[in-house]
């Protein structure tokens, strides 16, 4: 397909536009209508059929970005995830999921699947062998996240895709952390790529949306459950997302280079015990990350030296904001122990390597030196406080 030969920034700016035939405007007009003529037309358009002009244009852009045949956009990342899973699973089926899942996905699996008679297993680790061990004759889906949250482990996409194919199962990935700029799982044989578009695709912390990208055949199957679950999004959000994606390539590349610089700075800092970033040669999965990622992403995490309180440290930051979400142009941090992984037992957290002092850092597009200066001043403050008290 010709569009796939274009570079990321060209796809971001040009592919999947609604042509303004009436006024020849530079950007897609927004069709803020939920009602379309149904007589004498080939396509019956309706927002919950996922086929309005703005939806179809955005889907073309996202499909091109993920080297996929087709795409669907949803009202949230969770709508995309739950709809895609329910399209491929039915009573009696089994699914294998990577242990280090996004909290919402984990919650969906453990609270909903049993109601439908679907069984599930979580892997112990993230190596291909860990997935193979959990396979059962009725396993229909293998679901991965790479890089993972919050320790940025890397799963071998090609190995998992092959394992799924051999077993007659569908392979799915949550590609949110990498974004399509840094990682295209379909090139490695993965069947269904899912995004929380709330994150890097939106990029400005102002939209909530989700997307799947896959073959036309899989898209049609997901569409069947999508029209039933009804997780479509407003036309205005679709339009905003198209606008946001135009700058995704330059945003994410700026975040890649900032994150690399920040990871290197933190690694050398004597107040930091550990840094987790796939771009660091010291990262356990660095070689695999190099093989399957074009950039190492804007997410990293680090552990402060024992005795330095992570929450106190974050309170002293002036530029970097504490935030539950991630992937905006602004830098944010959170403590997984206090937020995303608070419901998990201390024992389970320890098993996954999530310590009390761990901080997840979503690196924005600010000047690198300003981010470093902010961390420096917060460390100085917390150290003087720690000595005083
Ligand atoms: C945020 C997020 C989701 C869920 O997306 P929503 O848009 O909040 O529904 C899923 N996976 C990952 C990795 C996320 O970061």
Strand order within the widest beta sheet: 1-7-6-5-4-2-3
- Categorize the overall geometry: globular
What is the name of the CATH topology of the largest domain?
A: Aspartate Aminotransferase, domain 2
Q: CATH superfamily of the largest domain, called what?
A: Type I PLP-dependent aspartate aminotransferase-like (Major domain)
Strand content: 5-15%
Helical residues, percent: 25-40%
Total count of helical runs of at least 4 residues? 14
Describe the protein's architecture and organization.
This is Cystathionine beta-lyase. Its cofactor is pyridoxal 5'-phosphate. The modification N6-(pyridoxal phosphate)lysine is found at residue 199. InterPro entries: Cys/Met-Metab_PyrdxlP-dep_enz, Cys_met_metab_PP, PyrdxlP-dep_Trfase, PyrdxlP-dep_Trfase_major, PyrdxlP-dep_Trfase_small. Keywords: Lyase, Pyridoxal phosphate. It is a single chain. This protein has 389 residues and is α/β, with parallel strands linked by helices. The protein folds into two domains: 3-245, 3-Layer(aba) Sandwich (Aspartate Aminotransferase, domain 2); 250-388, Alpha-Beta Complex (Aspartate Aminotransferase, domain 1), CATH 3.90.1150.10. The chain contains 14 helices and twelve strands. The strands form two sheets. It has a seven-stranded mixed sheet, sandwiched between helices. Strands 8-9-12-11-10 form a five-stranded mixed sheet. It is globular. The model has no long low-confidence stretch (mean pLDDT 95). It binds pyridoxal-5'-phosphate (PLP). Pyridoxal-5'-phosphate binds next to helix 3. Pyridoxal-5'-phosphate binds at residues 76-78, 102, 104, 149, 174, 176-177, 196, 198-199, 208, 210.
């Amino acid at each position: 397909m010709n569009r796939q030969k274009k570079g990321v920034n060209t796809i971001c700016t040009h592919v999947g536009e609604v042509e303004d035939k009436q006024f020849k405007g530079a950007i897609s007009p927004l069709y803020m209508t939920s009602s379309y003529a149904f007589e004498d037309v080939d396509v019956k358009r309706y927002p919950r059929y996922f086929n309005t002009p703005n939806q179809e244009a955005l889907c073309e852009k996202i499909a091109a970005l993920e080297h996929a045949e087709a795409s669907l956009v949803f009202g949230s990342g969770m709508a995309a995830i739950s709809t895609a899973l329910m399209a491929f699973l039915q009573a009696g089926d089994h699914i294998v999921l990577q242990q280090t899942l996004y909290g919402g996905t984990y919650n969906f699996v453990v609270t909903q699947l049993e109601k439908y008679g679907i069984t599930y297993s979580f892997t112990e680790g993230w190596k291909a062998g860990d997935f193979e061990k959990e396979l059962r004759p009725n396993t229909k889906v293998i679901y991965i996240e790479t890089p993972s949250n919050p320790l940025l482990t890397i799963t071998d996409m090609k190995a998992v895709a092959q394992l799924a194919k051999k077993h007659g199962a569908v392979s799915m990935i949550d590609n949110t952390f990498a974004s399509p700029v840094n990682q295209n799982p379909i090139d490695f044989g993965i069947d269904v790529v899912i995004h929380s578009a709330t994150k890097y695709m939106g990029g400005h912390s102002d939209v909530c949306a989700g997307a799947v990208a896959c073959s036309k055949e899989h898209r049609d199957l997901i569409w069947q459950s999508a029209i039933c679950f009804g997780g479509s999004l407003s036309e205005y959000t679709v339009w905003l997302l198209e606008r946001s994606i135009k700058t995704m390539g330059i945003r994410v590349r700026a975040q890649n280079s900032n994150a690399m610089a920040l990871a290197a700075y933190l690694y050398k800092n004597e107040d930091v015990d550990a840094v987790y970033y796939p771009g660091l040669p010291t990262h356990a999965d660095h070689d695999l990350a190099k093989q399957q990622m074009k950039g190492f992403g804007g997410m990293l995490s680090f552990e402060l030296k024992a005795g330095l309180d992570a929450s106190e440290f974050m309170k002293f930051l002036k530029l970097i904001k504490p935030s539950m979400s991630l992937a905006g142009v602004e830098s944010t941090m959170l403590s997984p122990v206090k937020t995303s992984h608070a419901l998990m037992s201390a024992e389970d957290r320890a098993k996954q390597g999530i310590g009390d002092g761990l901080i997840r850092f979503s690196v924005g597009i600010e000047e690198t030196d300003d981010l470093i200066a902010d961390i420096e001043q917060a460390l100085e403050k917390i150290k003087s406080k720690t000595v005083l008290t």
